[in-house]
Specification:
The radius of gyration is 20 Å and the shape is globular. With 345 residues, it is of the alpha/beta class. Strand 4, helix 3 (79-92) and strand 5 (96-99) form a beta-alpha-beta unit. Strands 3-2-1-4-5-7-6 form a 7-stranded parallel beta sheet, sandwiched between helices. A 7-stranded mixed beta sheet has the order 9-10-8-11-14-13-12. It has 10 helices and 14 strands. The chain has helices at residues 14-24, 52-55, 79-92, 112-116, 134-137, 152-166, 196-199, 213-225, 258-269, 317-332; strands at 4-9, 29-35, 59-60, 72-75, 96-99, 130-131, 146-148, 176-181, 204-205, 232-237, 244-250, 275-277, 294-301, 306-313.
C-alpha cells in the first residue's frame, strides 16, 4: 500500500500533540515535519515518547509551514490562520489538507463574520471542502483535496441527532442540547478562567446562544437528515481534562416507539467501527477517553413527550485528531481504522 508523507502545523497544541502521536505510529503515513513556534528547534522526542524517526524530528517555526513539503498537511491552527494557509498549501501542490479549525466548516461565507469574527479570505474553497465525519458522509471524502474536520461538540451532537431526524422518529424542530466538555476543549492557553483554582469543583455555562458550533451542527444535521430547525445549545465547562457528554432533547414523532428509536440508531451505526449504540445510562465519558469512539443512545420520555439522546466522545481524539486521521484514511483509500485500531476502547 502506497504511503504518504505527513506534516502537522500547530503541533504543540492539544490536538497537534494527539496528531503527532497518531501519525508517528500510522502504518501508511510518514510523519516528516512538525511546526510550532513554542518549541521551535527542539526535538519531538524531547516532548513526546515517539517511536523511531519521528522522535528525531525538530519543530520548525510556524512561518515555514506554508512551504511544508508533505503529501498530507494537518492544520491544528486558529481559524484565521487556517483560512490563510489552506489556499497556499493547495496551490503549492499538497495532495490533501485536513484542517482542524472552523475555517472551512460553514458553507456560507456570509456566516463567518458573525460566528468566527473574520471575513473569509477564500470563499471559493468552501464548496470544495469535504466535511470530515465519515459515519455521516464517507462517500464524499474519497479523493478529497480539502477536508474540514468537524468541531468536537458538532461531532458528538450531530452523530446522535442525524439518524433520529432522518428516520422520522424525531422532529427537526425544537431541539435543545446541553454539552458538557472537559477543559482541554478550550485549547492549550494560559488564562485565569481555565486555571485549576477557577475550574476545579465547579460547573460553568458559557457562550450561550453564540457558540460557533451551533450553525455547524444545524448545517450537518440538515445535510444528512434532510432538515434541521434552530437548535438551542448550552455548552458547559466541567472539571475534567478531556471528554464530552451531550444530552439532546427532541420532539418524538406521533406514535414513535422505543423500538423505532433503537432501530434508527442500529441502522445508522450497526456496522460502524467507531460508533457504539448503548442504553443512554450506559453512555459514559470514561469509556471513550483516549479512543476514537463515540458511544450514544436514546430513550423516549413518554410522560414528558420527549426523546432524549445522549452521546459521548473524547474531544481530542474523535472530536479532533483521531477523526482527522480517520478522514485522511477515507480520503486516501486506506482502511478507516488504520492507525486508530490500537487505541483503547
Amino acid at each position: 500500500m502506497h504511503s504518504h508523507s505527513a506534516a502537522v502545523i500547530g503541533a504543540s497544541g492539544y490536538s497537534g500533540l494527539e496528531l503527532t502521536r497518531l501519525l508517528a505510529r500510522h502504518p501508511h503515513a510518514r510523519l516528516t515535519s512538525i511546526y510550532s513556534d513554542r518549541w521551535s528547534g527542539e526535538r519531538a522526542g524531547a516532548r513526546l515518547p515517539l517511536p523511531g524517526p519521528a522522535a528525531s524530528l525538530a519543530y520548525l517555526p510556524l512561518a515555514e509551514g506554508e512551504a511544508a513539503d508533505a503529501d498530507v498537511v494537518f492544520l491544528a491552527t486558529p481559524a484565521e490562520v487556517s483560512a490563510d494557509l489552506v489556499p497556499r498549501l493547495l496551490a503549492r501542490g499538497a495532495r490533501l489538507v485536513v484542517d482542524l479549525s472552523g475555517a472551512f466548516r460553514l458553507t456560507d461565507p456570509a456566516a463567518y463574520p458573525a460566528w468566527y469574527g473574520f471575513t473569509h479570505p477564500a470563499p471559493e474553497l468552501l464548496a470544495e471542502a469535504r466535511y470530515g465525519c465519515p459515519e455521516l458522509g464517507r462517500e464524499a471524502l474519497a479523493g478529497a483535496r480539502l477536508v474540514t474536520n468537524p468541531g468536537c461538540y458538532a461531532t458528538t451532537i450531530a452523530l446522535a441527532l442525524a439518524p433520529l431526524v432522518r428516520s422520522g422518529v424525531a422532529s427537526p424542530d425544537g431541539i435543545a442540547v446541553t454539552g458538557l466538555s472537559g477543559v482541554s476543549g478550550a485549547g492549550r492557553k494560559s488564562s485565569e478562567d481555565y486555571s485549576f483554582v477557577e475550574v476545579s469543583d465547579d460547573l460553568r455555562a458559557y457562550r450561550l446562544g453564540r457558540h460557533q458550533h451551533v450553525p455547524e451542527i444545524e448545517q450537518t444535521v440538515a445535510r444528512h437528515a434532510g432538515a434541521c430547525g434552530p437548535i438551542s445549545f448550552s455548552p458547559v465547562l466541567v472539571p475534567i481534562r478531556r471528554g464530552i457528554l451531550a444530552t439532546a432533547v427532541l420532539r418524538p414523532a406521533p406514535g414513535a416507539t422505543q423500538a423505532d428509536v433503537a432501530a434508527a440508531l442500529e441502522r445508522a451505526y450497526g456496522d460502524e467501527p467507531f460508533v457504539s449504540v448503548r442504553a443512554p445510562d450506559k453512555v459514559m465519558v470514561k469509556d471513550v477517553v483516549h479512543t476514537n469512539r463515540c458511544h450514544l443512545g436514546a430513550a423516549l420520555d413518554a410522560r414528558a413527550g420527549a426523546l432524549v439522546a445522549v452521546s459521548a466522545i473524547d474531544n481530542l481524539v474523535k472530536g479532533a485528531a483521531g477523526q482527522a486521521v480517520q478522514s485522511m484514511n477515507a480520503a486516501l483509500g486506506w482502511p478507516e481504522t488504520a492507525g486508530l485500531d490500537l487505541l483503547g476502547g
